[in-house]
Amino acid sequence: MKRIAYFIGIAVCVLLSDCSRSQTPDKNKYPDPQIATSYNNFPVKYSDAQWRQKLTPAEYFILRQRGTEMAFSGKYNHFYKKGTYYSAASLQPVFSSDTKFNSGTGWPSFYAPITKDAVKLVLDKSDGMQRWEVVDSKTGSHLGHVFDDGPPPTGKRYCIDSDALIFVPEGGKPPTSAK
């Protein structure tokens, strides 16, 4: 009888340790993006007039003026086709449909960027709160914010504005313009 209890105890320990390991973020597969200390240290720079020419008014508001679209209004909120999401500012890939999930918040949400170098984080102390702003790593353009209330495997919720993104279906060609 003691032997059976011993083996059951070992089995429970093995199962519990396997479960806890599956909840731990894989830092090799999903490393955290770099932190940017300023909006001035990005390789791609345009004048305000050039940005206005490149972007639609809605894209300009989000990407360059750090605006936010109304919850539940964005075209990618309840959108689940397979493909890649590109920054409308730099036209670089920033998120994959493989990491998209329904957060119920009213904005497209992802648990990880497509690569650790696709986005950077900037400390945002606006509106009386402190949070991490997600910006395009080439232009420093605002994409949204990241929070620590997402699903496994990272526990992160990258809450991104639809107007900051361009979706390209799996097998499609990368965008050549935001407009």
Task: Please characterize this protein's 3D structure.
This protein has 179 residues and is an alpha+beta fold. Helix content is 20%, strand content 23%. The chain has 3 helices and 10 strands. Strands 1-6-7-8-9-5-4 form a 7-stranded mixed sheet, with no helix packed on it. A 3-stranded antiparallel sheet has the order 3-2-10, with no helix packed on it. Strand 2 (83-87) and strand 3 form a beta hairpin. The longest helix is centred in the N-terminal third of the chain and has 22 residues, at 2-23. It is globular, with a radius of gyration of 20 Å. Residues 1-23 have low confidence and may be disordered.
Give the gist of this structure.
By secondary structure, this protein is an alpha+beta fold.
Strand percentage, roughly?
A: 15-25%
Question: Radius of gyration from the CA trace?
Answer: 20 Å
How far apart, in Å, are the first and last alpha carbons? 73 Å
**Count of helical segments?**
3
- Rounded mean pLDDT is 87
Overall helicity = 10-25%
Oligomer state equals: single chain
Order of SSEs: HEHHEEEEEEEEE
Low-confidence segments, given as residue ranges, are 1-23
Shape summary = globular
Biggest sheet descriptor = 7 strands, mixed
Write down how many β-strands occur, each being a DSSP E stretch of 2 or more residues: 10
Structural class designation = alpha+beta
Q: If strands are numbered along the chain, what order do they take across the biggest sheet?
A: 1-6-7-8-9-5-4
